[in-house]
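Ticket #476: bound-state structure for NDP.
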Amino acid sequence: MKIQNYINGEFLPPVADRWIENYNPAIGEVYGQIPDSTKEDVEKAVEAAEKAFPSWSNTTLTRRSEILSKIADLIKEKLTFLAESESKDNGKPVSLATQIDIPRAASNFQFFANAITQFSSEAHESVGLNAVNFTLRQPIGVVGCISPWNLPLYLFTWKIAPAIAAGNCVIAKPSEVTPMTAYLLAEITKDAGLPKGVLNIVHGLGTSTGQAIVEHKKIKAISFTGGTTTGAHIARVAAPMFKKLSLELGGKNPNIIFADCDYDKMLETTVRSSFANQGQICLCGSRIFVEEKIYEKFKKDFVQKVSELKVGNPLEESTNIGALVSKEHLEKVKSYIDIAENEGGKILFGGDRIAVKGSENGYYLQPTIIEVASNQCRLNQEEIFGPVVTIMPFKTDEEALQLANDVKYGLSATLWTNNLNRTLQFSKQLHVGIVWVNTWLMRDLRTPFGGQKESGIGREGGFEALRFLQNLKIYV
Ligand code: NDP
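RESOLUTION: The complex was predicted; output attached.
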């Protein structure tokens, strides 16, 4: 199957007629082709977006909201098909795509359909000066949205929905590794009545198509989710053009477990926070720190629970862990397991590739638990982004806090304790964008989302996303 670009409301092949192979990671085989788009394709998309902007930015909020709601409804109608397509393209269990990825894509549109009708400019009266200051928020123009492969439609729509709700026209690029649901979304937005040119989807490699989007002078803002190294590169390219930038980057999140927690809930959640989506979620808790008093018990129980997870064909409902997204990524993750062995880490469970019956060439890896002796090892300092977690014990609150913060990333942290004072202290002192206490991955779309340190700059979600996606002007 050949995926096409979506420009000015039309499905088009790439100008240079060059194509990239698209793999099904569950079987390790090519199942389609996607455009290898160049600057020329991006240029066409920008022209279409510029043309659509005057009318779209002037479209009433009610109409914008209706179209976004309609997109959400159509995503829900096509839930099963979209979930199967996502699973095939990414390797994730279809059950996960059905319960999380696709419903969240619909929620992203529904949320911003509502939010835009409640978002407002502000006025400040200068009392005694006979003046009123109006803070006017206006759409930026043409904006770029670039998203990664781990939660393809979920993150693609997380960027596109607020961008168009805010009155912008968009040039969007999904990861070339997982282009399928972005392609399917184009058709949905067309059916929902989104005018041509408002959303343009250009497929291709990050280093060429993505780079062309970031370099384009007429694209005034970039919303990017992806790796920290890519984010730093994008910042360097965009800075001389003074583009607005929102960067949601990598994580190496601590999961801090105290003896006074609700043990059963913690254990069950920790299995999920470690291995959901094959550990390929920027919010997974990949460094597990356990209070010494319960360390041995946790180790035994955690290994037992993880050994019960079924690694298998993502399209089977009973599968807990599917395939990693690509051969290159599988090799990268596996290389960290080799590093662990050289660094003196002890593999408590997993570590090997799995040959799934009938899909022997798929990119499957056992969920892997490694005991490490120091937080300074590469396994604890570098983002692996796969089904690999480390565990180590700690004695005191101070030590746990120091270990948690001793990393260049600052995306999220999970804390397991029933001590209120400790909860308050940790929540205040952890250098991250979000702290979950006795839970994990609970998200309310009204809240600002983003990281500290090398996990990014800016906040998306709720009104923060709309603020980022509009320009401010004051008049008095
Ligand atoms: P990458 O940084 O490799 O890619 C992200 C996107 O950027 C892809 O669409 C990619 O295209 C594109 N890209 C790559 N190079 C460039 C460039 N020079 N200019 C413009 N665009 C470019 O990340 P991954 O796809 O590997 O995703 C995994 C990373 O994403 C992890 O680090 C993870 O932590 C992070 N992430 C962060 C989240 C957050 O909210 N903070 C959420 C989810 C993931 P292509 O793939 O086609 O090369």
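RESOLUTION NOTES: Residues 146-150, 155, 173, 175-177, 205-207, 210-211, 214, 225-227, 230, 233-234, 248-251, 282, 383, 385, 411, 451, 455-456 surround NDP (CB under 6 Å).
TICKET STATUS: resolved
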